[in-house]
Amino acid sequence: MTAPHDDQPSGPRVGWFSRRLWGLHALVVVAVVFCLFMGLWQMGVYDTRREHERADQQAVPEVALTEVLGPDDAFTATANHRPVELTGTYAPAGDQVWVSGRDQDGTDGYWLVAPVLVDGVEAGAAGRPPALLVVRGWSAEAGDVPEPAAGQVTISAVLQAGDARGSGLDPDSRVIDGVRIPALVNDLPYDLYGGYGIVTDQTPPESADLAPVAPPDPEVSWSAGLRNLAYAIQWWIFGAFAVFMWWRMCTDLRNGPGGDRPSGARPAPKPLATAE
């Protein structure tokens, strides 16, 4: 009869902190730290490139409004965020509107938007005088419309695209919830431009007690620095792969030949078969 023998491995199981695994532990720590560092560095380059592109758009030189946009021209990406200068006359206070839902330093309030009749531009086919809507300033409340500067004014402004959604103008309060140029065309007797401007400077200066409005930062294309973003993700994938390989190699060493007995121990001899 053949004597039974014990197939269970002898000796204690090798732990995760066994000396034979110290080299792999050190290697994975170095690899993960390096991959994290390289990924963060590439993310920094990605952010820097986007900031540079935004700065380049903000550094565009100021030109005359007539060189960028006409009253009957479609508002394109070329005109968006473009600094322009124009000379004209403010429309009467009764033709100006308050735009609700405008935040200023964390406080909800209103923009005062006024048409400016642009000098040197001929009236359109409908005979309406051409006018560019401009943001005169911000106020915490929408009350009586303050009178604008009288006579001819020279305005520096940053062009913006009109709001796409919102309700119409309330004729009693003169409040609208967005700079919706198609809606305001029906309420104002002017040939309005396809965009509006945020005033950055004016001569003579604004006389009303209105806070100046800062133009928003230009939107940066999603593709700016995209290669660096891809490199960052790639480095982090390498780090994750290094962790996976470390786990696999440690598991194989712990479960492989000699992995279930202490270092230096020999396997127990198999018992000899005996005949009955």
UniProtKB/TrEMBL annotation:
Its main location: membrane. The keyword Transmembrane applies. It is found in: Cell membrane. Residues 256-276 are annotated as: Disordered. It comes from the Bacteria. The keyword Transmembrane applies. The chain crosses the membrane at residues 20-41. GO terms for cellular component: plasma membrane. Belongs to the SURF1 family. This is SURF1-like protein. It comes from Mumia flava.
